């Protein structure tokens, strides 16, 4: 580190030593640079749907601008939006939340940030099943709490159970972050698995954050169940969701939390001193998306399921890659550990980060290395891209790595 860097570091807050940059954001900026330079990239690294924001949402936002609906709103979000979210929660997960128990936020990420910073005391331990979404540990560290990583196995479908969680629980354990459908593994928990987890969480007197941002991408016939919906769980659960993935609205930045009133009131206090309300115009767009007919969700789900099957089949054809069939979200979590220690295109592969860099530079395929998700063995490939791009990416990977 240079002298000036050292001086700068000493002037920055202590958390800057603990919190890492977001690897997904870094990949996105590298891909953007490639595209600016006119180099073709197959974007299998992306975490956003390829379908557009629904027309009703766009029109509602345009109307909001024409109506000068451009001032501050309630910090918690406009009442009609919180009422629509309340209705959607009743419909989708069978839970009653009043508008005062819902806080509309700047994306799901912000709802998680509010929650973690409201529930965690310094030194509290937070259970994070591995693999995990990249921001969980960093947000926990930011809050002064300690991420405790709970390994999962491919044999268990990358899911935690009371048996695998138990050794990690002690007097400092505060909460479990349960993200399902899971980014990156695609794991979805059955009702039976959730009932067992719910018993465990109650017995150990823990909280649970249920990150449900991929809940509209569940492919198993049983559908999606929230852990918050089991007896005695609502009072110890915070449900997080967003319009980002469900409605192709990642850039609008609207998410929300649903939690017992006391927790929501505290989160609101934090939000009132940080972001205030999310964009008034984006709230109107989200309202139209959530309130309108939901038929397109089924169409999208079927399309994504077909793409999932193609991507799984394609990945399984490529030498040195293995994967399970994901039950939800829009990622394939491929075990690439066969490549570790073997050269690709004459270049050494010591880590999955090396492999991802080689795939990008030699084959023009952007994928996420598993490292940021807690795995040194995996690559995450996204099927939220149009078919030609996905097929082009698969063909380029197969040409570089070879077939089985
Ligand atoms: C598991 C998970 N939770 C939360 C988020 C955040 O979503 P948003 O874009 O609404 O902030 C993401 C985004 O990738 C995610 O994958």
Automatic annotation (TrEMBL):
GO terms, molecular function: transaminase activity
One Pfam family it belongs to: Aminotran_1_2
Cofactor(s), names only, from the UniProt record: pyridoxal 5'-phosphate
Boundaries of every Aminotransferase class I/classII large domain copy: 40-384
InterPro entries listed in its UniProt record: Aminotransferase_I/II_large, AspAT/PAT-like, PyrdxlP-dep_Trfase, PyrdxlP-dep_Trfase_major, PyrdxlP-dep_Trfase_small
CDD domains found in the cross-reference section: AAT_like
Keywords, alphabetical: Aminotransferase, Pyridoxal phosphate, Transferase
Enzymatic class: transferase
Nucleotidyltransferase found in the keyword field: no
Record-listed E.C. numbers: 2.6.1.-
Domain of life: Bacteria
Family: Belongs to the class-I pyridoxal-phosphate-dependent aminotransferase family.
Name of the featured protein: Pyridoxal phosphate-dependent aminotransferase
Organism: Cohnella boryungensis
Lineage: Bacteria, Bacillati, Bacillota, Bacilli, Bacillales
């Amino acid at each position: 580190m240079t002298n000036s860097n050292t001086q700068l570091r000493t002037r920055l807050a202590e958390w800057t030593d603990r919190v890492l940059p977001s690897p997904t954001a870094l990949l996105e900026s590298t891909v953007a640079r490639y595209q600016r330079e006119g180099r073709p990239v197959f974007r299998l690294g992306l975490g956003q749907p390829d379908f557009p924001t629904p027309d009703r949402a766009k029109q509602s936002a345009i109307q909001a601008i024409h109506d000068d609906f451009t001032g501050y709103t309630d910090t918690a979000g406009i009442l009609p939006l919180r009422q629509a979210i309340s209705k959607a929660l009743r419909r989708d997960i069978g839970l009653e939340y009043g508008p005062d128990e819902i806080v509309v936020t700047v994306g799901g990420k912000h709802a998680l940030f509010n929650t973690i910073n409201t529930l965690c005391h310094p030194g509290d331990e937070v259970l994070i099943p591995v693999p995990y979404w990249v921001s969980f540990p960093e947000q926990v560290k930011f809050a002064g709490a300690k991420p405790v990583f709970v390994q999962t196995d491919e044999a268990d479908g990358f899911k935690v159970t009371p048996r695998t969680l138990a050794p990690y629980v002690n007097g400092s354990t505060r909460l479990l972050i349960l993200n399902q459908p899971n980014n990156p593994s695609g794991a979805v928990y059955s009702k039976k698995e959730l009932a067992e987890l719910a018993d465990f969480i109650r017995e150990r007197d823990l909280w649970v954050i249920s990150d449900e941002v991929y809940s509209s991408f569940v492919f198993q016939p049983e559908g999606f169940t929230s852990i918050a919906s089991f007896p005695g769980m609502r009072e110890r659960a915070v449900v997080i969701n967003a319009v980002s993935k469900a409605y192709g609205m990642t850039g609008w930045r609207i998410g929300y939390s649903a939690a017992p009133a006391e927790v929501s009131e505290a989160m609101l206090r934090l939000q009132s001193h940080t972001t205030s309300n999310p964009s008034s115009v984006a709230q109107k767009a989200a309202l139209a998306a959530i309130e309108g007919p939901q038929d397109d969700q089924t169409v999208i789900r079927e399309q994504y399921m077909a793409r999932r099957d193609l991507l799984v089949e394609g990945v399984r054809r490529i030498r040195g890659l293995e994967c399970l069939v994901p039950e939800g979200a829009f990622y394939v979590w491929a075990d690439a550990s066969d490549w570790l220690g073997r050269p690709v295109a004459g270049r050494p592969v010591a880590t999955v980060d090396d492999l991802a860099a080689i795939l990008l530079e030699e084959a023009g395929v952007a994928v996420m290395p598993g490292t940021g998700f807690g795995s040194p063995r995996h690559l995450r490939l996204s099927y939220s891209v149009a078919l030609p791009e996905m097929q082009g990416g698969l063909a380029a990977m197969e040409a570089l790595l070879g077939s089985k």
